[in-house]
Design brief:
heterodimer; A: 6-stranded antiparallel β-barrel; 26% strand; globular; B: two-stranded antiparallel ribbon
Chain lengths: 285, 198
Amino acid sequence: MYRKQVRRRRAILVVLVVACLMLISISISEAESGPLHSVQRGVSTILSPIGEGASRALKPARDLVDWFDETWEARGENEDLRRQVAALRAELVKTRDAAEQAGYADKLAGLIKGGELTGYTPVDASVIGRSFSLWYGTIKIDAGSSDGVSRNDAVITEDGLIGRISQVTGGTSEVALITGGSNAVTARVVGGGPEGLISGVVGAPGKLDFSLIQGDKEVKDGDRLVTAGFTSEDGLSSRYPADIPIGEVVETIPAEQEQREQVNVEPFADLADLSQVTVLTGGGG
Amino acid sequence: MIVTPPILIRLALVVFVSVLLQFGFFSQVPILGSVANLLPVVVVAIGLLGGAVAGAVSGFATGLLIDAMIGGTPGVASLSLMAAGYLAGRWREGYDIVSSLVPPLLAGALSALAALIYGGLTLTLGIDAPVSVLALREALVQGLLGILLMVPVFPLVRRIVRPALVDDAGRARSRTVAGPRHSGRRGRFGMMRGQGSL
C-alpha cells in the first residue's frame, strides 16, 4: 500500500515537472502569435478584470502601508532635508537656467497634456499589478486596446520615460520597463551631447547603462539624457518620441583597453513605485 | 488530508484568493528592496497540511495562475512553487511538527529556495530580465518575509481545510470517546508523523 502511494506520488511529480518544462520550452520557442501565447493572452483577458478589481479593492490597504512607510521615512529624513534645502536652493538657481535651455521639463509637461507632441494622444492609466520578482521588468496597467493603446507605444510619467507597451488585451496592457532586458532606447545628452543606446544594467535592477554611438564626445556626471527619437532615411524610426527625459548620468567609468567607457544612468522616474502612468498612443510605434 | 470535492473547492479558492492578494497588494508594496511573496507561503502551508502531492499540485496551479495574470513565461513560477510545495509535503510525511516555529521557518527556507529556483531558471533561460547576485538578496528578503507571513497564513489555511485533516478528525473522535483530557503524545500543532498526507 505504502509503495503504491510512493509510486503514485512520484508519477504525479514527474508529470508536473514534465508539464512545466514543456510549457517553458514551447513558450520560448514559439512566436508571439503561437497557440500557447494566444491561450495565455486569452486567460489574461478573462482574469484581467478580476485582477483589476482586486487591485482597486486593495488600494486603500496599499495606501495605508504607503502612508506608514512615508511617515516613517519623513521623520528620519526631516532634519537631513532641512540642511539640504539650503544647499539645493543655491544649486536650483544654476540648474534652472540649464533646464530651461534644454526645455525638457516644459516639453514633458506639454507632452503629458498632449499639447506639443503632434500625432500622439496621451492615455492616462493606473498600475494594477507588477511582477513579484525584481527580475521581470514589467508592470500591468488598466488601459488596453479599447483605450487606443497599441503594442510598442511609449509609456511615461511626469518624471520621464518608463518603458513601452509589450502586450495588449482589451482593457489592460503590459509595460516592459526600460530597466528590463528587452528594451533599448536611443538617447542623446541634452545640450548637443553625444547620442547612444540606453539599456538595463545586468545585476542592478532600476539602473541604466548608456553606451555611446558617437564615441568622440564626452559624457560627464550630471548630464541629462532624453530620447533621441531618430528617423532614418529609409523610413526606419524609433519607437519613442524625441525629447522625453530618461535619466541623469551618475557615474562614468573610463574605457580600459578593449572595454568601452561605462556610463551609469539613474532614471528620473521611480520605477519601483509607480501608480499612475501615461501611454503615448497613435504615434505609429 | 482527505480530498473531497468541497475540500478541492476550498483549496482552489485559497489559491485563487492568494494570487489576487499577491497581484493586487503584495507585489505593489516594496519592502527592503524586494516584495513579499505570499504564494510560496500558501503552497508550503498546503504541503504541510496535505502532503507532497497536494503541495506539488497546488504549487503547479498557483504558478500557472500567476503567470497568466502577470504575463510571465508559463511554467517558470509553477516549477519553483511546485518544488516548495513538494518539499514541504515531504517534510510533513517524514517528520513531526513538534514546535510552532517549524511552519514559519520552513516557509522562510522554502520561499527563499523558490526565489532562487525562479531566479536560476530566469537566468538559465535568458528570459528578458537582468539577473545577478541580487538574486541571493531577493531570496533572503523573501525568506525573511515568508517567515512573518506564515505566522497568520498557516493557522488560516489549516482552519479552512480542517474538515479534511485526518489528524483533526482523529482528535475529535478521541475527545468524544475519552473526553477532553485524552490527547496522546502530539506536537504543539497536534500533528504526528505520517498523518494528514494526501
